[in-house]
Amino acid sequence: MAEGLSPLDEAHLWRAFWLARRAVPSLVEPNPPVGAILAIGEEILGEGFHARFGEAHAEIVALRQVKQPTRLAEATLYVTLEPCCHTSKKTPPCVPAIVEAGIKRVVVGHLDPNPAVAGQGVALLQKAGLTVQVASSAIPSARLLRHFWVNVRYGRPYITLKWAQTAGPTGRFPFSGGIMGSRQQGRLAISGFWGKVWAHRLRAQHSHLAVGWRTWHLDRPALTTRYFPGSNPIPLVLYHPARATALSLPFYPAPQIDRDFAQTLYQTHKVGSLLVEGGAHTLNQFLAADLWDEIHVIVAYREVAVPSEAVVLAPALPLSYSWHRLTLSPKEEVWIARRPQAKDEIALP
Question: Alpha-carbon distance 54 to 68, whole Å?
Fold first, then answer.
């Protein structure tokens, strides 16, 4: 923690963190999830989180809950992300509202990675005479920002690739050489119950969910969070314009999966985070373009009946990635790779 933060400060920041986690990616992104609390000692005067893109930020929500504004001079504002100070967005900046409210102390969970802020919000608050303290990475506010960090640094969505497959030949990495589908039939049952739970949990953590045209045509997947208590992502069915004339959403033209395509998704269509679930051709396109931030491979130790001429192999993955394995059930596990982010004074740890 930053020097001078008390156990009570830490407790309020944790509360703000859990408030921020209530934000639904499909509603709030490409804005970041943010929570805020106004407190005097143990008494909470107001609290809230940023719930929907284009609506009030967490600090404003908390301020609106205060029933006795004259007490704000005694209060501390706890907020998971540095208050904004720029005007190139749908809502007014929060820094002037905080100063006008008469608050004298602000505790910030993490500096804003957006270059339009990046410490300037803190500087303006201090210039107005407020005491501002920034927590260290011990408070996990940074984990909330991984989608937003990629958005503002690279101008594209945070991209997660996910698929289920059978275990390949025995070896250190069971996802090498496994089967993920059939060219002659629709949905192939590979994931067990806990694999579905993991997959649907991922869906709830992303604003958008993409599948390729062939996967949609063969499987007609529901693309919902039926196995996890979360909100449904916005579906996208990626198709090559040569396959069909212009179609309306959820069908989205993708003549080439590259960085221009990814940046258009973010800048034009406000896709803050994208979960790509298949099929193999679409996944391989993202891998070939090096467009990913996380990879989740659900490996099932079971046999599937697929004629040899119809087998669809799972994408080949470099074994040099840093892989983490989690056991989901006796016959199912998930292998996870996360792209390390650059380290600087405001980047994610």
Answer: 27
The residues carrying an active-site annotation are 59
Mean pLDDT of 303-318: 84
Q: Which residues contact 18 (CB under 8 A, 6 or more apart)?
A: 35
Cβ within 8 Å of residue 178, ≥6 positions away: 165, 166, 167, 168, 299, 313, 314
| Burial class of residue 33, CB neighbours in 10 A (0-12, 13-18, 19+) | buried
Q: Residue 217: which pLDDT band, with cuts at 50, 70 and 90?
A: confident
- Please name every residue paired with 162 in a beta bridge, in sequence order, or none if there are none: 296
Tell me if 310 sits within 8 A of 184, measured CB to CB.
yes
Non-local (6+) Cβ contacts of 118 within 8 A are 111, 112, 346
Smallest CA-to-CA distance from 210 within 192, 246, 172, 237 is with 237
Q: For the beta carbon of residue 176, count every other beta carbon within 10 angstroms.
A: 16
Residue recorded with tokens 């006796």: 330
Tokens of 109: 């969970």
This model's pTM is above 0.70: yes
Q: Write 342-349 long-range contacts (CB < 8 A, 24+).
A: 342/153, 345/111, 345/119, 346/110, 346/111, 346/112, 346/113, 346/118, 346/119, 347/113, 347/149, 347/153, 348/113, 348/142, 348/143, 348/145, 348/146, 348/149, 349/137, 349/142
> Across residues 158-169, what is the average pLDDT?
93
